[in-house]
Amino acid sequence: METITGRLIVDVPLIDRATDPVQSDAPWADPAALATQWLPADGEERMLMTVSTIDGDGFPRARTVMLSEFDGERFFFHTDADSRKVADLAANPRVSLTILWPGFTRQLVVQGTADVAPAVEVSRAYATRSPYLRQLAWLNMAENARLPREEREQRWADFAAQHPDPSQPDGWVGYGVTPHRMLFWVSHPDAPSRRVEYTRTPRGWAHRYLPG
Question: In this structure, which of 32, 82, 86, 198 has its CB flanked by the most CB atoms within 10 Å?
Answer without folding.
Answer: 198
